[in-house]
Amino acid sequence: MEEKALYSYLGLLWQVRSYQRKNLTVAEIFRQNVAKHPNKECFIFEDTEWTFSQVEEYSNKVANVFRNHGYRKGDVVALMMENRPEFVCLWLGLSKLGVIVPLINYNLRQHPLIHSITVARSQALIFGSELLS
């Protein structure tokens, strides 16, 4: 069993180095997977399944909304949400524009939260509605 895990890990390292040599972004790698497996499940969350195509479509909508609001490569938009597919879709969509996305721990409150947002020099903050309080 350990030997199989080692081979899987070495295969993953080889694949990552291949992507690095090609200078591919996460968005480009994701697009390759969408092309290969458009209808394959990408996320299973609670009672909902998201295919690679659905994640690509959602993230493209995010990219378009933020592009239309003037965000571009090098801008900083912090993201603070609980774990769910929209979290990844938002991060992926923003990264397609070259927007830097600091991921803020949703358990932070008061001074630690203010510090994290300030240190990230965020121009905007996206947060889940569950964190309104």
UniProtKB/TrEMBL annotation:
Keyword Iron set for record: no
Domain AMP-dependent synthetase/ligase: 30-126
Pfam families, per database record: AMP-binding
InterPro entries the record matches: AMP-dep_synth/lig_dom (IPR000873), ANL_N_sf (IPR042099)
Catalysed transformations (reactions): a very long-chain fatty acid + ATP + CoA = a very long-chain fatty acyl-CoA + AMP + diphosphate; tetracosanoate + ATP + CoA = tetracosanoyl-CoA + AMP + diphosphate
UniProt-listed SUPFAM superfamilies: Acetyl-CoA synthetase-like
Keywords in alphabetical order: Ligase
Coiled-coil stretches: none
PANTHER family linked: FATTY ACID TRANSPORT PROTEIN 1, ISOFORM F-RELATED, LONG-CHAIN FATTY ACID TRANSPORT PROTEIN
Family: Belongs to the ATP-dependent AMP-binding enzyme family.
Name of the protein in its database record: Long-chain-fatty-acid--CoA ligase
Species: Timema podura
Source lineage: Eukaryota, Metazoa, Ecdysozoa, Arthropoda, Hexapoda
